[in-house]
Write a structure and sequence with these properties.
Helix content is 0%, strand content 50%. It is built from no helices and 11 strands. The strands form 2 sheets. Strands 2, 4, 5, 6, 9, 10 and 11 form a 7-stranded mixed β-sheet that branches. Strands 1-3-8-7 form a 4-stranded antiparallel β-sheet, with no helix packed on it.
């Protein structure tokens, strides 16, 4: 399984950004749970959001609730993270992750993407 994250960049506080993650590989299943984590310099990896394959279960980290929205397109094997009202503290490398069962912490996912950097200027 390969996960390719994209969409990171520089954005001003209060602005919006949309991250994308493309899944590929012979063993990838559209039933996999997909999600996002992030890691800021000097900090531990933090859970951002997760979505089950039919979007029946969706969870967000406390720091992004009400601002970020996770979605997925199973036909395209894509997962997205719409980031609105971004803050300087959202600055981090954002990682896409996938796992056969549900997860809300960084110890669980079996597959990880390479990360995309989001920088929010004040």
């Amino acid at each position: 399984v390969q996960l390719q994250a994209s969409g990171g960049g520089l954005v001003q506080a209060g602005g919006s950004l949309r991250l994308s993650c493309a899944a590929s590989g012979r063993t990838f299943s559209s039933t996999y749970v997909m999600g996002w984590f992030r890691q800021a310099p000097g900090k531990e990896r933090e859970f951002v959001a997760a979505i089950s394959w039919r979007a029946g279960s969706i969870d967000y980290g406390d720091s992004v609730k009400g601002r970020f929205t996770i979605s997925r397109d199973n036909a395209k094997k894509m997962v997205y993270l719409q980031m609105n009202s971004v803050k300087p503290e959202d600055t981090a490398v954002h990682y896409c992750a996938a796992h056969p069962s549900y997860f809300v912490d960084s110890t669980r996912p079996r597959y990880w993407g390479q990360g995309t950097l989001v920088t929010v200027s004040s």
